[in-house]
Amino acid sequence: MRDTIQLSEKEIVCIVCPNGCRIKCTPNGSEYSFSGNKCKRGIAYVEAELTRPMRSLTSSVKTVFSNAPVVSVRTDGEIEKSRIQDVLSALGKVTLDHPVKMGDVIIPNVCNTGVNMICTSNRLARH
């Protein structure tokens, strides 16, 4: 396990499967010991949450169109939780001035995360 773990007792609810295990994370030297998981996937999820939490992000961007002043967007993958504010700041600087459809890339490789911001709506699609 990486040495970036903040060692304090925690309980994390696993979201990998519908069980929703409450996994207790107890400091054990320079690592954690885990209990409460029903499968190994829960341990992998909790280790990732403790060392490098990742998130999908949904938001909206402005447009110049009066019939659709904003359009919804999302990441096409997960980004580090610590980068969410950077990505939101980048989205705040975007104003769409052309038609886009669902799946179109709005910002490629947003904030050098390796993830694209894509459109999730056909509100601006040409019919």
Structure description:
- InterPro entries: CPE0013-like_sf, DUF1667.
- This is 4Fe-4S Mo/W bis-MGD-type domain-containing protein.
- The chain has 2 helices and 10 strands; from the N terminus they run βββαββββαβββ.
- The chain has 127 residues and is of the alpha+beta class.
- It folds into 2 domains: 10-52, no CATH class; 58-119, CPE0013-like (CPE0013-like fold).
- A 5-stranded mixed sheet has the order 8-5-6-10-9. A 3-stranded antiparallel sheet has the order 1-2-3, covered by helices on one side. A two-stranded antiparallel sheet has the order 4-7.
- The longest helix is centred in the middle third of the chain and has 12 residues, at 40-51.
- The protein is elongated and about 55 Å long.
Helix and strand arrangement:
Layout (H helix, E strand, L loop, with lengths): L9 E4 L8 E7 L2 E5 L4 H12 L2 E2 L2 E6 L6 E6 L3 E2 L3 H9 L2 E2 L8 E3 L9 E3 L8
Parallel strand pairs: 5-8
Antiparallel strand pairs: 1-2, 2-3, 4-7, 5-6, 6-10, 9-10
